[in-house]
Amino acid sequence: MTAPEYVAVGKIVKPHGVRGAAMVFPLTEQEERFDPGETLWLSPTPEGRGGAKPVTVTSSRIHKGRRLIEIDRFEDRTQVEQRVGWYLVIPFADAEEARETDEFFIHGLVGHEVRTETGERLGEVTDVLVTEGTPLLELQPEGGGARRLLPFVREFVHAVEDEAVLVTPPAGWEEL
Questions:
Q1: Which residues are within 8 A (CB) of 4 and not within 5 positions of it... i.e. 6 or more apart?
Q2: Distance, CA of 172 to CA of 176 (rounded, Å)
Q3: How many C-beta neighbours within 10 Å does residue 92 have?
Q4: Is 161 a residue whose pLDDT tops 70?
Q5: Are the C-beta atoms of 11 and 89 separated by less than 8 Å?
């Protein structure tokens, strides 16, 4: 699997006010990425496909638990409305350079084996769905069958290793 060209650090969820501010759902723990003066790229996809355009953050603050930013490309509410659902991305090389040794990129879990801490193989991660709430791991069960979704939360996901994700799925999950 080749590394993506870009990595998403935020998703535009709605406009705020009339002057071009955007509510952003952060997809990174490094919130300094949204500091004024920082360069990000605006993209319709989290991988930067479809023409990522550079933008500069001109203002940033926390508002009602979300990141409220202004960027040089948005001059009014309409421009933000047209980009709801778009991503703020950074070059993969920049993200990789800032990554700590024990950190991982959630998109990198695709292809990982999923097993319980007792070693029972449950399947393989086929996709990661990033939602406004909790990311979801899409799993193809061992031996086929319908794909399942598992919330990527500490309650269910205990460890991420080089080639496996160790989980304890909720009771009844296998029957869904």
A1: 47, 48, 92, 107
A2: 7
A3: 18
A4: yes
A5: no
Q: Using the predicted structure, report yes or no on whether residue 98 has a pLDDT greater than 50.
A: yes
According to DSSP, the β-strands at 66-71 and 6-16 are unpaired
Average pLDDT of the chain?
86
Tens-place pLDDT, residues 18-42 = 999 999 988 887 889 999 999 999 9
HEC assignment per residue over 64-108: CCEEEEEECCCCCHHHHHCCCCCEEEEEHHHHHHHCCCCCCCHHH
The CA distance from 85 to 45, in Å, is 9
Residue with tokens 């930067």: 48
Cβ(19)–Cβ(58) under 8 Å? no
Q: Is the pLDDT of residue 15 over 60?
A: yes
Count Cβ neighbours within 10 Å for each residue of 130-141 and write b for 16 or more, e otherwise. Answer: beeeebbbbbbe
Q: Which helix (H) or strand (E) holds 160?
A: strand 157-160
